[in-house]
Amino acid sequence: MEKFDVLFIGSGQAAWNAALPLAMQGKKVGIIEEGTVAGVCTNFGCDAKGLLDGPVKLLAEIEQFDEIGLETTDARINWEHLMAHKHAVIDPLSGQMQAMLEHSGIEFIFGHGEFRDSKTIVVEKKEYTATKIVIASGQRPARLNVPGKELMHDSTEFLDLPQMPESIAFIGAGYVSMELASIANAAGADVSIIEFAPRALNGFDAEYANKLVEKMQSSGVTFYFGEGLSKVEKTGRQYTVTTNRGTEFTTDYVLDATGRIPNVENLGLDKAGIDYDRGGISVNDHLQTSVENIYASGDIISKKQPKLTPVAAFEARYLTQLFLGVTDEAINYPVVATAAFTLPRIAQVGVTTDYAMEHPAEYQIKTIDLANSWDYKAMNEKDASMKLIFDKAGKLAGAVNYSNEAPEVINGLTTIIEQGLTIQELQRTLFAFPTLDYNLSFYLAQGLRS
Q1: pLDDT (tens digit per residue) in 145-196
Q2: Are residues 288 and 371 both part of a single domain?
Q3: Most CB atoms closer than 10 Å: which of 5, 138, 325, 328?
């Protein structure tokens, strides 16, 4: 039986961000991986999506500047060429990551890992043990249990499409669906979105989510709100989609984007005595499971924090400090910025507008009309807007931005909230000019005055 200091199940952001520094500090580290090294984000998720999204954002910017003096030819997305570029960039990353980790002394164990007991993991009939074990097995796309579910695709398959279908039906209107629908629409597909709830992007600011829906509708996207998927049927070379309200239409491709579920099955968690629920594995404030020597990191955890790549990496870095004895304190999560990479983008951080409206004695919401500020006028962003949430002391507690530059702007506001900076302190920071960050203190002062 081979023994490690730390053994990880999974090799994504929640694992390698701890495995690498631990190995560099002389720990004997192993990684069990049954899929592709480096996990979903690197290979099948955000990195690939971000690459495909780049030309989509550029098209939107060309459209803005076309109205104010940019003379262009008929710019369009060549999906086949773009997909070839995606493969050229993304496909080597897994091998590069594996080589880097192995060069640092990390041993890879390929195959499916399953607990035999709380101290032993079996992979391909071989047993392994470790002083500490970290479960970082992540999540996978959920599938609706409806007739014809086998005919539907998921986000991983969409991000590998060799040709863009003429028409696509997206099931669900969360951020994954809305992002991929924006890409498909820009690439020329006829896009429909079915959503059981009455609105898109639950969890994001409702006003901005509704503005985004109107924008997408003006670009030809059809929404069916308040309707659940009833069935999918093959009709010749197409598929017939039927909702529980009787809506029926044909399409070339159906994508189930109704959420993600934790990979807790077939790990032998019950054999090891590890507690879990439908949200994932239960942990304490040290990311420790119900078994003393077993921890969890990343999207596999049942938690209130967003299941995002930066959160997974933060948890991995915390475990590094914990295992090296640098800290014995509970994990202290910072504020987490989130973004929907649609067009326009919606990005937010800290206290949400919904929460602020429910607690008017504690927070004030101020809306900034960015469209009428000089920098957004220069970019001809006619719908740009931002909401700032201030606490009773006048400090920024939350923000949400609706614009093509929303993620970049929200990053600057995230630092302000996390550091608790006042306007006076912020004015001590001289950002490059002209940039959007340069005006952050102005927007905060404007919000407090209004």
Answers
A1: 999 999 999 999 999 999 999 999 999 999 999 999 999 999 999 999 999 9
A2: no
A3: 138
Residue 361 is predicted with a pLDDT of 96
Whole-number percent of the chain with pLDDT over 70? 100
Within-domain flag for 336: no
Q: What is the CATH number of the domain that holds 218?
A: 3.50.50.60
- Spatial CB neighbours of 415, under 8 Å, sequence gap ≥ 6: 421
CA distance 439 to 418: 19
Three-state SS string across 133-192, please? EEECCCEEECCCCCCCHHHCECHHHHCCCCCCCCEEEEECCCHHHHHHHHHHHHCCCEEE
* Residues ≥6 apart with Cβ < 8 Å to 184: 158, 164, 168, 191
Domain count, the chain: 3
Q: What is the largest CA-CA distance in the chain?
A: 70
**123/268 same-domain check:** yes
Look at residue 332 and tell me if it is in a domain: no
Residues 129 and 6 in one domain: yes
**Tell me: the pLDDT tens digits for 350-373?**
999 999 999 999 999 999 999 999
pTM attached to this predicted model: 0.96
Place of tokens 């809305």: 178
Instruction: Classify residue 188 by burial, with Cβ atoms within 10 Å: 0-12, 13-18, 19+.
Output: middle
Domain that holds residue 29: 2-140+261-323
Q: Kindly state whether residues 314 and 421 are assigned to the same domain.
A: no
Looking at the fold, whether 154 and 248 belong to one and the same domain comes out as yes
CATH of the domain at 401: 3.30.390.30
Distance CA 305, CA 332 (A): 11
Cβ pair 257, 274 in contact under 8 A:
no
Point out the domain boundary residue: 224, 240, 258.
258
Give tens-digit pLDDT for 374-403: 999 999 999 999 999 999 999 999 999 999
Tell me which residue of 31, 35, 33, 32 sits closest to 43, measured CA to CA.
35
Burial (CB count <10 Å: 0-12, 13-18, 19+), residue 281: buried
Q: Is residue 331 part of a domain?
A: no
Say what the pLDDT of residue 72 is: 79
Cis-peptide, bond into residue 434, ω within 30° of zero? yes
Whether 171 and 228 map to the same domain: the answer is yes
Left (φ > 0), alpha (ψ -120 to 50) or beta: where does 385 sit? Answer: beta
Residue 302's CB: how many other CB atoms inside 10 A? Answer: 17
Report if residue 433 sits inside a domain.
Answer: yes
